[in-house]
Design goal:
The protein has a 5-stranded mixed β-sheet with strand order 1-2-3-4-5. Strand 3 and strand 4 form a beta hairpin. The protein has one domain: Aminopeptidase (3-Layer(aba) Sandwich). Helix content is about 30%, strand content about 25%.
Length: about 140
C-alpha cells in the first residue's frame, strides 16, 4: 500500500474530479448543472460522508456514504452510494483506506449496518465487496421511469 495516500472530506473544489468519475462509472455524460446542484446539496448534508483519496498530484478515488434512520432497523443505517477508484490505482489499497474511514464513521455514530448495492453488470464487484467484509444478503429491485 502506498503511504503517500491521503484521505480527506470532499470539498467544492473536488467537483470536477467527482463528476468525471461518476460519468466514467455510469458510462455516460451527465448533466453538469444538475450534477453540481446535487453534489453541493449532498456534501453539505451532515448525515453524509464524502471522502476523496489522493496523492500529491492527483485524485485516486472517492466514496459517498449516506445515513438515515430506518424503522425496520430501529436505528441509523448507512449506505455507500458511489465508490470509485481510478482504473490505474485499483489493487493499491485505496478502496480499503476509504472503506476503513466509512467503518470508523459508522462506529463513531453507532450505525446498525452498512449497505452497498452494485449493478449486476459489474460482476467483479461482488468479490471486491466480499473481500472488504460485506456479505451478499439481499436482492434489490428497481423500476426506472
Amino acid at each position: 500500500m502506498n503511504s503517500n495516500i491521503g484521505i480527506r472530506k470532499i470539498q467544492n473544489l473536488d467537483l470536477d474530479f467527482v463528476y468525471k468519475a461518476i460519468c466514467e462509472l455510469e458510462n455516460e455524460t451527465l448533466n453538469f448543472e444538475i450534477f453540481e446542484a446535487i453534489f453541493n446539496e449532498n456534501i453539505s448534508n451532515a448525515k453524509n460522508l464524502y471522502l476523496i483519496a489522493e496523492n500529491e498530484t492527483e485524485g485516486l478515488g472517492f466514496i459517498s456514504f449516506h445515513t438515515q434512520n430506518l424503522l425496520h432497523h430501529c436505528g441509523l443505517v448507512g449506505e455507500i452510494q458511489e465508490f470509485f477508484i481510478h482504473q490505474k490505482h485499483r489493487g493499491e489499497g485505496v478502496g480499503r483506506l476509504l472503506i476503513n474511514e466509512v467503518l470508523n464513521f459508522a462506529e463513531q455514530h453507532s450505525l446498525k449496518s452498512i449497505e452497498v448495492t452494485t449493478n449486476k453488470r459489474r460482476v467483479e464487484n461482488v468479490l471486491i465487496y466480499e473481500n472488504l467484509g460485506f456479505t451478499l444478503s439481499h436482492n434489490k429491485f428497481t423500476i426506472y421511469k
